[in-house]
Each structure stands twice: as structure tokens, then as C-alpha cells.
TrEMBL record:
<keyword id="KW-0808">Transferase</keyword>
<dbReference type="InterPro" id="IPR004839">
    <property type="entry name" value="Aminotransferase_I/II_large"/>
</dbReference>
<dbReference type="InterPro" id="IPR015422">
    <property type="entry name" value="PyrdxlP-dep_Trfase_small"/>
</dbReference>
<keyword id="KW-0663">Pyridoxal phosphate</keyword>
<dbReference type="InterPro" id="IPR015421">
    <property type="entry name" value="PyrdxlP-dep_Trfase_major"/>
</dbReference>
<protein>
    <submittedName>
        <fullName>Aspartate aminotransferase</fullName>
        <ecNumber>2.6.1.1</ecNumber>
    </submittedName>
</protein>
<feature type="domain" description="Aminotransferase class I/classII large">
    <location>
        <begin position="27"/>
        <end position="376"/>
    </location>
</feature>
<dbReference type="InterPro" id="IPR015424">
    <property type="entry name" value="PyrdxlP-dep_Trfase"/>
</dbReference>
<dbReference type="GO" id="GO:0016212">
    <property type="term" value="F:kynurenine-oxoglutarate transaminase activity"/>
</dbReference>
<dbReference type="GO" id="GO:0004069">
    <property type="term" value="F:L-aspartate:2-oxoglutarate aminotransferase activity"/>
</dbReference>
<dbReference type="GO" id="GO:0030170">
    <property type="term" value="F:pyridoxal phosphate binding"/>
</dbReference>
<dbReference type="Pfam" id="PF00155">
    <property type="entry name" value="Aminotran_1_2"/>
</dbReference>
<keyword id="KW-0032">Aminotransferase</keyword>
<comment type="similarity">
    <text>Belongs to the class-I pyridoxal-phosphate-dependent aminotransferase family.</text>
</comment>
<dbReference type="GO" id="GO:0005737">
    <property type="term" value="C:cytoplasm"/>
</dbReference>
<dbReference type="InterPro" id="IPR051326">
    <property type="entry name" value="Kynurenine-oxoglutarate_AT"/>
</dbReference>
């Protein structure tokens, strides 16, 4: 059968490759970004209760209204600004679906979309599927800082969207207030849409503050904010997220959303609406994960790996340049096969496969798992 691939250059994702390798060699898996501990039993019970109480049919297309109200209240509590639950918030089948739908709604053939690399791997394929062109700006290791003059040079009449991710996966870096003000200044007076991927908004360390796009008035007027319940509440397999945007942008989003998934899991929405009534369920998350980050880094402080502590997310980048000059993909595979520890090489997310000799490790794991991983790293 003859056909033409719409994504001819896309191979199996590095997450699938490393996950399969970890399974094959019974390795400790710090590659993929998911916790290996349970979600809160209270939330699980709320989902069960919702199922038993009959919330098993289609939910409203934009999401259960009580959940959208809870999301609006969360924004007001955290950022002193909010979104109207009726017209400016939509619950989605995870953050990835929100990102796919936003790009599909607004990007047409030959439109240009600026992304910052290393970039999460769902952005570029979605841009390509919609006929757009990805324009990359490489973040500068080891601090993953942004060259805003380069960004300015790459904006032109074809630029229709800029995608940012803060806290940033895979680097663990943050967009500062300065960065957000630079972005706001560059987009002001344009028709550029900003897609702000903020799925790790509640996982920020060392007293830093999350600089959400909603805190900057002109940015808010042109931005979609994408968030994830799975990342926040340790249940990535539920695939629950949401996005927020001004009414006129959200109206366009919902035109596509209704024919993409129409609606998402009803009992989980009902449970989350109740669970979000207690703000501590998300406000205590930074402290929880900082303890895990610090625990892991303290265990490997005398190893041959170099690091700058992650500023956010539940990922830590480790520099192995004093250990070997191997290509990072090769070293990651060897570390999995020979040493029994799986990680993610960052070059696959960089412009032209730039190899800075670093690997990403997920520390959203139990202390026992982190101890075993650290023992391996300390022997290398």
C-alpha cells in the first residue's frame, strides 16, 4: 500500500527507547517523568466515589463547571489574576492534548513557531503536522539562559506563535521575571500567540517564584497557559490537564477541541473538583520535591558527575564530561545496559543534536529507588 508519511523524519521517541531498554535489562528507570509512588489515597477514593455515584457518562465539553471554578480560584489565590470559568478555561486529556489542539487551531502552512531548545518533544511534530515551520532558539548550557537578541532576530511577519516551557523540561531551568518581561516586550503590538507550557508550575525550589504568563498583562492577553493534574498529583496515567486563555482565543480552541476529544474523563474531573478545595494539595508540592532533589544530590555529591541543582520540575541534569567523551545517547544506553540505570540524553532535544555531555534523571521516586540509583552513579 502506498502512502506519504506526514512525519517522515520522526523516529521512536527517546522515552520509548530508554524505557524499553530499562525493561529489557531490568534497570532502575529514572528516564521517563513519572513517580513510582502512589497518588493520595483521598483522591483515589474521590474518583471511586464519583464512579459509584453515577458520574460515568459524557462530561460537558469544556469540563465540569465546578472543576473550572476551582481552577479559576487557584489562579486567583496564587497569582492575583484569574480566568472566567465559563469562557476561558477548558479541561483537556492531559497537557499534550491541549498543546496539540492549540497548535492545530492557529498554525497554518508556512507559519513559523519559535521554540526554545532543549524542547519537550511534542512541540515540533505538531507544528509540522499543521504545515508550520519550527524556528529554534538554543538555550545556553549549563544555566540554560536565553539570548533575547537571537529571539528578536528570529521574529518576523511569518511568526505566529512562541512556545515557552517554565519550569523547563528537560533542563530544570526557569524563565525569570526578566525573561518574561523580555518576551512581553517582543510580542507587544503583534498578533503572535504565546503558548506557555506550565505543567510543573507547582514544582519550584529554593524560594523561587513561578513567573506565570498570567502575571504579565500584555502576555496574558495573547497567551494560552497549559497545566497538568497528572504532574501535580502523581497520576500521569490519568491524562488530565487544562488550559486557560482569553475568551476570543478559547472560543477558537474549543472549535477544534470538540472534534478532537470532545470531553475528558468525567469521574476524575468530579474528584479533582473536590480535591482542589484544599489548596495545600498543590501548595506543599515544592517542599515535597525539593526534599527529594536534595536527598538525591546529597547522595551523589562525591561522584564524578557535575551538577547545578535543578530549579524546578522533578528532573536533574548531570554532566558526565569528566567521565567519558562518549556521545550522550551512547553513554545513556551503556549506563542502562552495563550499569542498570536508565536516564535521558539531552542532545535529542537540542538544535542539530548539540551534545553537551549531560543526562537527565527523574527524582520523582521513592528514597529506596534514589539510593539504589545513587549507588550506581557513585561507582562510575
Amino acid at each position: 500500500m502506498r502512502f506519504s508519511s506526514k512525519l517522515p523524519n520522526i523516529e521512536t521517541t527517546i522515552f520509548t527507547v530508554m524505557g524499553a531498554l530499562a525493561n529489557k535489562h531490568n534497570a532502575i528507570n529514572l528516564s521517563q517523568g513519572f513517580p513510582n509512588f502512589k497518588s493520595d489515597q483521598k483522591l483515589i477514593d474521590l474518583v471511586n466515589n464519583a464512579m459509584n455515584n453515577g458520574y460515568n457518562q459524557y462530561a460537558p465539553m469544556a469540563g465540569v463547571f465546578k472543576l473550572r471554578e476551582a481552577i479559576a480560584n487557584k489562579f486567583d489565590l496564587l497569582y492575583g489574576t484569574s480566568y472566567h470559568p465559563e469562557t476561558e478555561i477548558t479541561v483537556t486529556a492531559g497537557a499534550t492534548q491541549a498543546i496539540f489542539t492549540i497548535i492545530s487551531t492557529f498554525i497554518r502552512k508556512d507559519d513559523e513557531v519559535i521554540i526554545f531548545r532543549p524542547a519537550y518533544d511534542c512541540y515540533e511534530p505538531t507544528i509540522t503536522l499543521n504545515g508550520g515551520k519550527t524556528i529554534s532558539v538554543q538555550l545556553e548550557a549549563p544555566n540554560y539562559s536565553i539570548n533575547w537578541e537571537e529571539v528578536k532576530r528570529k521574529i518576523n511577519d511569518s511568526t505566529k506563535m512562541i512556545i515557552i516551557n517554565t519550569p523547563q523540561n528537560p533542563s530544570g531551568s526557569l524563565f525569570s521575571k526578566y525573561d518574561m518581561l523580555q518576551l512581553q516586550a517582543l510580542t507587544k503590538g503583534t498578533d503572535i500567540i504565546v503558548l506557555s507550557d506550565e505543567v510543573y508550575e507547582h514544582i519550584i525550589f529554593d524560594g523561587e517564584k513561578h513567573q506565570s504568563a498570567c502575571l504579565f498583562p500584555d502576555l496574558k492577553s495573547r497567551s494560552f497557559i497549559v497545566a497538568s493534574f497528572g504532574k501535580t498529583f502523581h497520576n500521569t496515567g490519568w491524562k488530565m490537564g487544562y488550559c486557560c486563555a482569553p475568551k476570543e482565543l478559547m472560543e477558537e480552541f474549543k472549535k477544534v477541541h470538540q472534534f478532537n476529544v470532545f470531553c475528558v474523563n468525567h469521574p476524575v474531573q468530579k474528584a479533582l473538583a473536590d480535591y482542589l478545595q484544599e489548596a495545600r494539595h498543590y501548595q506543599e508540592l515544592s517542599e515535597f520535591y525539593q526534599e527529594k532533589r536534595d536527598f538525591f544530590l546529597n547522595l551523589i555529591k562525591d561522584s564524578r558527575f557535575k551538577f547545578t541543582p535543578s530549579k524546578g520540575t522533578y528532573f536533574q541534569v548531570l554532566d558526565y564530561s569528566e567521565i567519558t567523551s562518549e556521545y550522550d545517547v551512547d553513554f545513556a544506553k551503556r549506563l542502562t545496559i552495563e550499569n542498570g540505570l536508565a536516564s535521558i540524553p539531552l542532545s535529542v532535544f537540542n538544535e542539530n543534536g548539540l551534545d553537551n555531555k549531560v543526562l537527565r534523571f527523574c527524582f520523582a521516586k521513592t528514597e529506596d529507588t534514589l539510593k539504589k540509583a545513587a549507588d550506581i552513579l557513585n561507582r562510575i
